[in-house]
Amino acid sequence: MSVIALFSGNFCNEEAYLHEIQKKTGYRIVKDHELLNRAAELSGTTGERIQGAFSAKPSIFNRFTHEKERAIAHLRMALSEVVVNDEIILQGFSGHLLPKTITHVMNVCLISDIKHRLAAALESDKYSEKEALGLIKKHDEDYAAWIKLLYEREDPWDTGLYDIVIPTDKLSPDEAGSLIKENMSGIVLQPTSRSRKAVEDFQLAARVEASLAREGHDVSVDAREGTAILTINKHVLMLGRLEDELKSLAGKVPGVKSVVTVIGRKFHKTDIYRKFDFDVPSKVLLVDDEREFVQTLSERLMMRDMGSAVAYDGESAIDMVNEHDPEVMILDLNMPGIDGIEVLRRVKQTNPDIEVIILTGHGSEDDKKVCMDLGAFDYLQKPVDIEVLSKTLKAANEKIHPKQ
C-alpha cells in the first residue's frame, strides 16, 4: 500500500477532509507535531525550536547557529523512521521533505480562494475580518517560504508539486475522500522494489545529515546504495580540509559504504561556509544605545565566531528576546526609555534561562548588587578587555550548554 502526504491552507476545513480520507483508506494519521516531538528527541532540543523551521522568518542568529537547517535535518530523520511503514497519512509541512524518488507517495493539496477561506474563518466567531486576513497572510507566507526553501518555487499551491489538488470550496470531504481512495488503487502508486530502495536511501541520507548537523555542519545529503553524497553549497577557503572532515564524519554512520563530496551550484555565491561551533555562544544580543561602540563590539565578536545581533534600546531588546530567543545578552544600564535594570528584571521574569552580562560605564556598587540579585550572570565595567568579555561569554555558554 501507499503513503499520502497532505498539505493544506489554513481555514480550508482540513480536519474534516483528513477524517474522511482516514475513514475511507484506513490509514494511520501522522501529524507534524508527532514528527516535531521525535525530531526534538533526536536533536536534544524542544519541539518549539524544531517548529521554527516552518517559519518564513528565520532567527536573526541562524547564519551562525544553522538552527533551521539542523531542525530540518532531524525532521528528515524522524520522517525516515515513519515512512518505512505504508498506509500512513502525513499531515502538514513534513510530507514535502520526502524525495520524489519515493514514488508510492501521493501528494495532496487542500486549498480554496481567499474569499472562501475568509468566510470560513469568520464563521468560527473567533476572529475579526482584519485578524482573519492577517492569519491567512501569515500562514501563506510560511507555506511559501517552505516551498521556496525546498523546491525554489514561489507558489505553495503550484499544481506541479501535487498529484491531486482539491478545491475545498467545490468538493466536499466525502467527495475528496472517495477521489483519493480511487486514485490510491492505481498501479502507479503501488510500492515497487525501486521505490522501496528509495526509502532505504532516504533513511541513510537522513541519518548522515543529522549526524553532520550534530557536529555543526550544514550540507545537503543524498544516498544511493550505501554511498553518501554530500553537496557543499557555500564557499569555503580550505575546501580539501572540509571535505576530509565531512568524509570522516559521514563514514562513521552505520550503513555508509563510501562517501562522495560534490560542489553545488550555489557554491560560488557570496555565502561563506560556517561550521557551527558549540563551544562559543552564537545567539548573543547586544543592548546598548552607543551605536558605534555596540557595532564595533558585534564585529569583534563575529571575528571570534560568536554570532550577535544588536538592539539600541530596552524596548527593542525585549521585542527581540520574545521573537528571536537569544541565549546570552550583553546589557548596558543607562539607556533612554526602559533602562537596563528594568530590561534585566523583565527578561528574567519571562525568559529566566537567558544569561545576562551587564556591561556598563556608569554603574555603582548598588547597581551591581541589584543586578546580581536579579540574576545577572556577571557585571563588567567599560572599557572591557575583549578577551575578558570573550571568556565571560564562553562561561555563560557553558552554563547554558554543559559539556557532556
TrEMBL record:
Domain Response regulatory: 283-397
Gene Ontology BP terms: phosphorelay signal transduction system
Key words, A-Z: Phosphoprotein, Two-component regulatory system
Keyword Phosphoprotein: yes
Entry-linked SMART domains: REC (SM00448)
PTM-bearing positions, type 4-aspartylphosphate: D332
PROSITE patterns tied to this protein: RESPONSE_REGULATORY
InterPro entries: Bact_response_regulator, CheY-like_superfamily, P-loop_NTPase, Sig_transdc_resp-reg_receiver
PANTHER family: PROTEIN PILG (PTHR44591:SF14), STRESS RESPONSE REGULATOR PROTEIN 1 (PTHR44591)
The protein's name: Two component system response regulator
